[in-house]
Amino acid sequence: MVPSSPRVVVKVDLKKKPWQQTQPLHNRWHPEIPSVAEVRANEFFRVEMIDAMGGIVKDDDSSSDIKFADLSTTHHLSGPIRVVDEDGVAAKPGDLLVVEICNLGPLPGDEWGYTASFDRENGGGFLTDHFPCATKAIWYFEGIYAYSPHIPGVRFPGLTHPGVIGTAPSMELLRIWNERERQLEESDHKSLTLCEVVHQRPLACLPTTKGCLLGSIEEGTPEWERMANEAARTLPGRENGGNCDIKNLSRGSKIYLPVFVEGANLSTGDMHFSQGDGEISFCGAIEMSGFLELKCEIIRNGMQEYLTPMGPTPLHVNPIFEIGPVEPRFSEWLVFEGISVDESGRQHYLDATVAYKRAVLNAIDYLFKFGYSKEQVYLLLSCCPCEGRLSGIVDSPNAVATLAIPIAIFDQDIRPKTRKVPVGPRIVRKPDVLKSTYDGKLPITKNPSSST
């Protein structure tokens, strides 16, 4: 017998605002957000989701939607979904929830996406001290391929994946998150050496009622006020999974998520058509609306059996991810290296973040020589299938990070070569990414030895 089509358990209407959806969405983590659907173990089901920014980013000729975006509202998640076993018994705290991605993609009729970098005064990004302006590039999909009129000469297959997928935290775990992140945010950032090199702020996004969506909990009620002041933002990955942004988490992948509340309360969103390792520009994948077709299993008492706590409580665990068999095949790569030395020439001690920043800056400056603006390369490296690696972490004083870029995505040969003819004027590829002005007064980091 032909198996049935997946049951649609969460459906979205792209013509409606996030808060107008028939099945209410949420953009916070809290154990008391009511579930919107229930699925049984081994049931084949489908979840639809809007894009991470909730439809405010338009396919137009302006980046003002990025510059003035209200970042208190992201990400808009579909769920929570309560998971029970074949006998109708809910997943319980201490279980392991196995989520298999059977299929995924953009929603029909909405086959486009965007990559962007936020204004330095409103979100920023990994290189916001070099690129303080809000920028945007639109991408169009042709089956498995993506191309952008704002970054010409590039076309690549997407490795589509959910940026956010996770289970609901318990109240104890939520308290742990809020306490440790508040301590970080309220610390003097000048005492943190890395803050002198990485300038994205704030250090942590704490609970706030602004922009808060809590599913069917009615805004303005005493219950909503209490939960909104407790609920964790969805920005970082945490013990429950969350915004892990693993670009290879595509068809055939499995996620082994710890269960902290009865029913697990699975949520997902932030669909990406493609992403580079690190998602460096922050709004940096090819963001889109989309769907997931999933199956779940429950491993009873799986947290104790398979997850080792790395912290003071049994809740300090992390999910396990099993990468699926489907991904683009590239045979030739150009690899850029970075070490723990910042743009001023100062040595850092085994700092992998500084090393990766150097690798990215080296790649940007190199591809600039081939006719791309540096803003184009910044967005491209954030969303194309490039591979970030931590190559060395023990050889003092330098950590070594690498960024590998597939050569085949370009319509020209980007490898260094012996030139037999004089080098002509630099060919500038037009058009460029959409770009807003930077109206702030924070200093821009410049490498005194780099290209113009």
TrEMBL record:
Leader sequence residues: none
Coiled coil location: none
Protein name: Formamidase
PANTHER family: FORMAMIDASE C869.04-RELATED
Domain of life of the native organism: Eukaryota
GO MF terms, alphabetically ordered: hydrolase activity, acting on carbon-nitrogen (but not peptide) bonds, in linear amides
Pfam family, one: FmdA_AmdA
